[in-house]
Amino acid sequence: MNRLSILVVLTLCLAALHPAVRAASAGTASPAALRQTLSLDEGWRFHLGDIARDSFAGGQGVNLYGPDITYHGAKAGSAWGAAARGYDDRGWQRVDLPHDWVVEQPFDEKALKQQGYRPRGIAWYRRTFTLPASDRGKNIELQFDGVATHCTVYFNGTEVHHNFSGYASFQIDVTPMVRYGDGAINTVAVRVDAEDTEGWWYEGGGIYRHTWLVKRSPIHIATDGVYANPVKDVRGGWVIPAEVTLANTGVGVASAAVDVGVFDAAGRRVAGGRSAPVRIAPEGAAVVKVAVPVTAPRLWSVDAPTLYTVRTTALRDGTPVDAADTRVGFRTIRFDAHKGFLLNDQPLKLKGTSNHQDHAGVGVAVPDALWDFRLRKLKEMGSNAYRTAHNPPAKELLDAADRLGMLVMDETRHFNASPEYLEQLRWLVRRDRNHPSVILWSLFNEEGLEVNEEGMEIARVMNAVVKQLDTTRPTTGAQNKGQLGPDGKANPKNAAQSLDVVGINYQADDYDRIRAAYPDKPIVSTEDTSQVMTRGEYTTDWAKVVASYDDVYPGWAATSTARGAWEAIARQPTFAGGFSWTGFAYRGEPTPYGWPSASSHFGALDLCGFPKTEFYVRQALWVKDRPVLTLVPHWNWAGKEGQPIKVLAATNADTVALYLNGKLVGDKKVDPFKMVEWQVPWAPGRLEAVAQKDGRNVARFAVETTGEPVALRLTPDRNALSGDGRDAVPVTVEAIDAQGRPVPTANLAVALEVSGPGAIIGVGNGDPNSHEPEKASKVTMYNGLAQVILQGRRAGSGSLVLRAASGGLKPFETTIDVRAVPALPSVPVVAE
Ligand code: GAL
């Protein structure tokens, strides 16, 4: 888009539930009928390591135009080495995207600690395809949703793009460089440089998000070119002030208009409007505005996330030529200095978690379905908000947040007001500004400059750039210092001065002072907690594991147990809420230890999404509409007869009575934040808690001493999978005793075997110290649990059977029904 001149045309057309709307809808068609959005994920060739520039036959010995200069060569179309057309990549590995090569590497103590002790390096990807002669004249765009970390893209031997953020999507209009017709091969080559890093956590390496090839009419709706975010007007009515960017890559000036239709979940067109025509020069663009009133829509909320579809159709001389569907939700949001956050005018405390983007077994190449899985887990914990720390998320995460009702603080990677980085910020806002889930733009995390005038100015510029594209959501920054001056009053020169919402990372001891210093600004805890615990461990071993009692935290995060952190936030009624560090554990930044820990011990859930004690604690703190009661730890302590075991009841009840083998241990009043703990001399048997609220029994929970494991058990998160090569399901592996009880201390090696239309795409066990391969057909359980991620094969259908066996235990077999689904339209793989 940036090479196109933008002509902004304002055509306000008001039309709604009115006969004209029905007439207008006559001239529209579905996006599938007008544009082709083809997956380019299948069938890439992959080479780990760089390729010498002079390795291209014919390249050796040439001087000025030759490979001794760059891959790029000196002339369009004549790149060298692996960047060239016709390069022989037949010996390379075939991979499908999303792909993270770093997660496939062995752990290595000499590799970067912050990145999780795995080698990163440089790699190449290549993909070839043909386009029929009938595509001539169309707009052809390549889309990369995310490549970690830096990359250069070559198309048909011409260098076409450099990308310097592993989190920003990019699109390349390759229209003038395409070759058409059956015999003409088109070649995409991508050199990925993951030697560099952008963060202090695991970032993976490779083309780890989806890729697409989009064929559109030369007059088309630009990528991310629809802004259709519903707003409530001053009179209380709803309107979608749609702004649509139309582009023209055709040869002549064109006249085009847009039709905007709003459809409910049942597919009924409930409102619409159409613009007057605008003229668009070749290689030009125009922004067309159409305000569409919508009468009495159903609202979107975290409990009832109702979505509508806005269908935007580009019309050339009255004929539909392109269309795009945008999912939207009708909701109001407000951050208020006195009332905190309000959704649909109702106060709602943000019970948030911060999260990086990797998952066990798959690294950062997270299948779309796992975003659903992860958000469902967080909702189960009582969370209603998600911070995309510290970078733009996959768009599929936001789609899932829209569908499931999870509010999102959307964070950019770079605190930088230079043109290139502002362009990344613009891209983020343009891509994400229609999502009802997105409520807050975060412009930075813990920047050195946040404390001074430079930081204030960078934030001012970034804030202004955001406002040009979206005035409906406030900005904030995750700021861990500098809001206060030495006098304890507002520091006149710091980043918070430039932002709508003051973000506070940690600094719980200063909450009152910061509140007083910014009386007119809303405040949110952008980050807190940093609680460390290792799932299923209850004794700290200062070399590698942390006991799971919610009482150990790094020095910089004082007061940061999950309980202490939430208590501090809850005691600030004007705060919008908070985002704990973290929802899920993540690779890299292996706090509080280094090697052998390769992932952090942070997280209410481990790398697989298995709950830790913090999960139950947050559930007790956050869930209000039902009783919550969980006991920690398990009750398998053979060898500790008579010794005191610390027991924590995570509950939202008033009192808890604890019984060991039917005998009352104690009946305690529950502190709503600290909850309740005992020291219980251990004896085998059953430890049971009975919780009361308002004098009535409301919940019971028991842990029992189990027998030895005798059998395995597999529990898939879902029993059906789409046979599309994309859908994925995590399966939990447990060992059970003779009575069918899961054995929480089992650490058994499990052999896996799969048959049918699918495959294992990764395994994990949530152990931060594990150095086992994650692409394997075996896994070792860690404290009673392991996870296997299964994926249905493209065009697959039938029964996918996973078998698990371990020594003399009874094996287990689970069957997932792989359902045939229409194939995702994709670009066929053609060999050169
Ligand atoms: C914060 C930082 C996070 C993470 C965390 C660990 O200061 O924003 O990225 O490093 O500390 O406690």
Descriptive overview:
The protein is built from nine helices and 49 strands. The chain is mainly beta and 832 residues long. It folds into five domains: 36-208, Galactose-binding domain-like (Jelly Rolls, Sandwich), CATH 2.60.120; 219-328, Immunoglobulin-like, CATH 2.60.40.10; 350-622, TIM Barrel; 637-704, Immunoglobulin-like (Sandwich), CATH 2.60.40; 711-820, Immunoglobulins (Immunoglobulin-like), CATH 2.60.40.10. Strand 21 (308-316) and strand 22 (319-328) form a beta hairpin. Helix 3 (368-380) crosses helix 4. It binds beta-D-galactopyranose. Residues 445-446, 480, 505, 527, 530, 554, 557, 581, 589, 591 line the site of beta-D-galactopyranose.
Task: Assign the CATH superfamily of the largest domain.
Answer: Glycosidases
Known CATH architecture of the largest domain: Alpha-Beta Barrel
Percent strand = 35-45%
Bound molecules: beta-D-galactopyranose
Q: Low-confidence parts, pLDDT < 50 over ≥5 residues?
A: 1-25, 59-63
**What's the total count of β strands?**
49
Name the CATH class of the largest domain.
Alpha Beta
Q: Compute the average pLDDT.
A: 94
How would you write the strand order of the largest sheet? Answer: 30-29-28-27-26-33-32-31
CATH topology of the largest domain: TIM Barrel
Q: In this structure, how is the largest beta sheet organized?
A: 8 strands, parallel
